[in-house]
Amino acid sequence: MKINFYKYQGTGNDFIMIDNRNGTFQATQPQIEMLCHRRFGIGADGLILLENTPDADFKMIYYNSDGRLSSMCGNGGRCIAAFAKHLGIGKQDAILRFTAIDGLHSAQIIETINQGFVVDLEMQPVHGIELTDEYTVILNTGSPHLVRICHDVDSLNLVSEARKIRYSKRFAAQGINVNYIQKIGDVLKVRTYERGVEDETYSCGTGVVASYLAADVLLQGFQPREIVTQGGILQVKAEKISEENYTNVHLLGPAVMVFQGFTEL
Description:
Elements lengths: L1 E9 L2 E7 L9 H8 L9 E6 L6 E7 L9 H13 L9 E5 L2 E11 L2 E7 L3 E2 L1 E5 L2 E5 L3 E6 L8 H9 L10 E8 L2 E8 L4 E3 L3 H14 L7 E4 L2 E11 L2 E20 L1
Parallel strand pairs: 2-3, 4-5, 11-12, 13-15
Antiparallel strand pairs: 1-2, 1-17, 3-4, 5-6, 6-7, 7-17, 8-17, 9-10, 10-11, 12-13, 13-14, 15-16, 16-17
């Protein structure tokens, strides 16, 4: 089967995008894993299907690079909104509405850039933040995250340290995404290890949101002007309604088409 695909990236977090509104893409877990392989396939952190739904403008189905269906992906949500605009879905300058595994989302194109857009993605409200110690919190921003303060995030052996947590007795079965954060002036630097990819990614949207909220909890109300990832800069906006509850959570940043092509499944 010949497949038409698009490659998108959001601050270096990259995805294979497939317009599956006709329902013809029916791939197995090993096939999706091979498509995401960086040496034997197209190469990506994940694969995203855009499908029809009666409940919104479209439906987002996200697979990690291991080929398994995964939880919400924030950068993927911004990229699929840009992809939908490329396909002509939705009215001009209108807010797009789409369903994902964690519920309904809205996305607005706020700026056009070369080969893509700056997208404002509304995330789900966050309820409940577990403070494990003075340096670490656990929370769910559409995907489960552990966030820990680090005093020199650049020199950290992230993969080694994160895997100790991800494969610990508590998290081994379901996995958890692990983020290390460092406050530098009025910005927050973040590095993220993603389950399913089982490696560091250039950026993680739900991880950036988790890190922003964790900074508010761990750093005495610090709300960074921007979040610096390995792949670029993102912004988060959120309304705090109590010590463990946030609403009107938004993730803002670029979503860019890299290339388009065909492959055989």
